[in-house]
Amino acid sequence: MTYPVGLRLEGKKVVVLGGGQVAQRRLPALIAAGADVLLVSPDATPSVEAMATGGEIRWERRPYRDGDLADAWYALVTTSDPDANARASAEAEAHRVWCVRSDDAGAATAWTPATGRSDGVTVAVLTGRDPRRSAAVRDAVVEGLHTGTLAAPRHRDRAPGVALVGGGPGDPDLITVRGRRLLAEADVVIADRLGPRDLLDELPPHVEVIDAAKIPYGRYMAQEAINNALIEHAKAGKAVVRLKGGDPFVFGRGTEEVEALAAAGLTCTVVPGVTSAISVPGAVGIPVTHRGVAHEFTVVSGHVAPDDERSLTNWPALAQTRGTLVVLMGVERAAAIADALIAHGRPADTPAAAIQEGTTAAQRRVDAPLSELAAVIAAEDIRPPAVIVIGDVVKRSGR
Ligand SMILES: C[S@@+](CC[C@H](N)C(=O)[O-])C[C@H]1O[C@@H](n2cnc3c(N)ncnc32)[C@H](O)[C@@H]1O
Fold first, then answer.
1. Tens-digit pLDDT profile for the chain (399 aa)?
2. Among the four 124, 144, 278, 322, which has the fewest Cβ within 10 Å?
3. Same domain as 312, residue 253
4. How far is CA 288 from CA 88, 279, 303, in A?
5. Does 245 contact ligand 1 (Cβ within 6 A)?
6. Residues acting as catalytic residues
7. Atom of ligand 1 at shortest distance to CA of 358?
8. Three-class SS string for 27-45?
């Protein structure tokens, strides 16, 4: 049996004998812990040598000699010379220095656990003398913490405030690791209609899930009502996640929420998300750029028609480019958008596609030349949410 402990090695001398692969694997954690590492070895791997050249460790290029461990707090004995290892571990014993031996775990006074880290949690696993099993358990725990499938909410040091999390286009696997973890730690989740709604089912029963579309907004605008709900819950000391579709800053009104929170004196963490503008075309095999075909892509909101006085888009200029156009929120105005582009120079036969509910089980795609896209969208009953892609890249999707 071993007795697990967390060594606080900052500024403490740690002696590493041998500069091979074992030392290479162990040194980064010792350096990260702030240990004063002395490597004693006639040679070292290029990576270990780089640590010495970079000033992260001290290196004495020579074999082990008696006395090296006298003032160490901890020792790692990894030379390829069994006799030197035995002498060093005897010296460690004599000086009461905890000593790890790579060649003979049975003779060591300390064993190195399989370690991993995730968001401030250190995972250390020891399984007797089965390092592969230790590593497997470590991987499973770290993976669970990363993804949030292993819920480990913080109880101390939990930062008050709101996390604005980009949830990706809909497939629950396309949220970021950080987003998923924050979701697992939330007390309150205010979610949009778009995004990975399946993840909401996984939340524990105590989590309050609020549908942003259903927040009563009385005399307020809907966005103000959402801002107020975020502020109210955060001020009540709850861990609040504002879960948005795609990326919060791509037509997501994320900035308005960040500003409202700042005005209320609340902090806000923004977690980027996988935007539908790139991932939804990608899900049906359409690359937004392709060498020799499109050297740029432009993401445009189609929520107002090109001739609408509120439009901020220079459609004539876009019509003149050769690059890919990705239009979000444009299904209802597809005819007006296509007309404006063709009128200002985009060829009528430019390949185009519309993808509805990309990355979800309900994903659908229709294709048509630009001049016929709106008619095909109507005939095939393509509805929001959908992304429209216009450009020669549409032909590069293996269709
Ligand atoms: C208000 S915008 C939000 C965009 C989001 N912030 C993003 O980065 O993907 C909503 C539009 O995104 C597009 N969209 C989002 N998710 C989609 C999906 N899974 N499939 C197709 N279009 C999607 C549609 O054009 C939809 O009307």
1. 889 899 999 999 999 999 999 999 999 999 999 999 999 999 999 999 999 999 999 999 999 999 999 999 999 999 999 999 999 999 999 999 999 999 998 899 999 999 888 877 889 999 877 888 999 999 999 888 877 777 776 665 566 679 999 999 999 999 998 999 899 889 999 998 888 988 998 888 899 999 988 777 776 678 889 999 999 999 999 999 999 999 999 999 999 999 999 999 998 999 999 999 999 999 999 999 999 999 999 999 999 999 999 999 999 999 999 999 999 999 999 999 999 999 999 999 999 999 999 999 999 999 999 999 999 999 999 999 999 999 999 998 755
2. 322
3. no
4. 60, 9, 21
5. yes
6. 192, 214
7. 20
8. HHHHHHCCCEEEEEEEEEC
Q: Are 259 and 311 in contact (CB under 8 A)?
A: no
With a 6 Å cutoff on the Cβ, whether 338 touches ligand 1 is: no
- Same-domain pairing of 304 and 391: yes
Q: Is beta strand 58-60 parallel, antiparallel or unpaired with respect to 36-44? A: parallel
For ligand 1, atom 2, which residue shows the shortest CA distance?
A: 251
Binding site membership of 279 for ligand 1 (Cβ less than 6 Å): no
CA of 156 to the centre of ligand 1 (A): 36
**What's the 382 CA to ligand 1 centre distance in angstroms?**
14
Within its chain, how far is the Cα of 236 from the centroid?
28
Full domain range(s) for residue 88: 1-112
The CATH number covering residue 66 comes to 3.40.50.720
Instruction: List alpha helices for 192-241, DSSP H.
Output: 198-201, 222-235
